[in-house]
Amino acid sequence: MFTILSAAVAPGFALMSFFYLKDRFDSKPFSIVFRTFVMGSLLVFPIMFIQYAFETEGVLQYPATKSFLLAGGLEEFFKWFIFMYAVYKQDHFEGRYDGIVYGVSISLGFATVENILYLLANGVEVAFLRALFPVSSHALFGVIMGYYLGKGKTDRKRGSIYVVWLALATPILLHGLYDYILEIWQSTWQYTLTPFMIILWLIALRKVKQANMVPADVIPIEQNKWKA
């Protein structure tokens, strides 16, 4: 049991540490980051219940609808909703890279609990592949979501609302495509998913670099009017 729990939790904490320590300016208090991690972890159970209900009733079980609506749409929407409700208007969210930290935290909270449940059901033998693919992909979706939400928070322009919605649409599309690959190429998925993950990592690391070029102290003062 301890081995399974350790193998399930380790990838999430390793990835969280990686992105947390990438902050070049002002790292957020770990207590706040951990709180968002816990919020993300609590999403697993209601989402699993909804997905199970649809599966039991045989609704939306085609590869495209299952991938883009029940997996990508449902999971990324709830992550985005938690971010908007619990983080977006808070004073401690004040820089573009903050968005990445909180996005990754929520996503990895979800991925870690999901990973624990999966390894308990299927054994530790699949832990390595789970770390490389599902857990990492959740973190990368969180990077992209957080980047756009950070951009929406700090750029007080007419297009900022568009960027906030882009923070929802882009992870849904990428997550849906990830699951669609698994649905279509069930026996040879690794040959398609591996290059997909490489591209996803490159996109995410580029977003990290771009976010780290804009420190919180250069955000326009007009952002005060957006505070709750």
From TrEMBL:
<keyword id="KW-1133">Transmembrane helix</keyword>
<protein>
    <recommendedName>
        <fullName>Protease PrsW</fullName>
        <ecNumber>3.4.-.-</ecNumber>
    </recommendedName>
</protein>
<comment type="function">
    <text>Involved in the degradation of specific anti-sigma factors.</text>
</comment>
<comment type="similarity">
    <text>Belongs to the protease PrsW family.</text>
</comment>
<feature type="transmembrane region" description="Helical">
    <location>
        <begin position="127"/>
        <end position="149"/>
    </location>
</feature>
<keyword id="KW-1003">Cell membrane</keyword>
<dbReference type="InterPro" id="IPR023596">
    <property type="entry name" value="Peptidase_PrsW_arch/bac"/>
</dbReference>
<feature type="transmembrane region" description="Helical">
    <location>
        <begin position="6"/>
        <end position="21"/>
    </location>
</feature>
<feature type="transmembrane region" description="Helical">
    <location>
        <begin position="33"/>
        <end position="54"/>
    </location>
</feature>
<feature type="transmembrane region" description="Helical">
    <location>
        <begin position="66"/>
        <end position="88"/>
    </location>
</feature>
<keyword id="KW-0812">Transmembrane</keyword>
<keyword id="KW-0378">Hydrolase</keyword>
<dbReference type="GO" id="GO:0008233">
    <property type="term" value="F:peptidase activity"/>
</dbReference>
<feature type="transmembrane region" description="Helical">
    <location>
        <begin position="188"/>
        <end position="205"/>
    </location>
</feature>
<feature type="transmembrane region" description="Helical">
    <location>
        <begin position="161"/>
        <end position="182"/>
    </location>
</feature>
<dbReference type="Pfam" id="PF13367">
    <property type="entry name" value="PrsW-protease"/>
</dbReference>
<feature type="transmembrane region" description="Helical">
    <location>
        <begin position="100"/>
        <end position="121"/>
    </location>
</feature>
<keyword id="KW-0472">Membrane</keyword>
<keyword id="KW-0645">Protease</keyword>
<dbReference type="GO" id="GO:0006508">
    <property type="term" value="P:proteolysis"/>
</dbReference>
<dbReference type="InterPro" id="IPR026898">
    <property type="entry name" value="PrsW"/>
</dbReference>
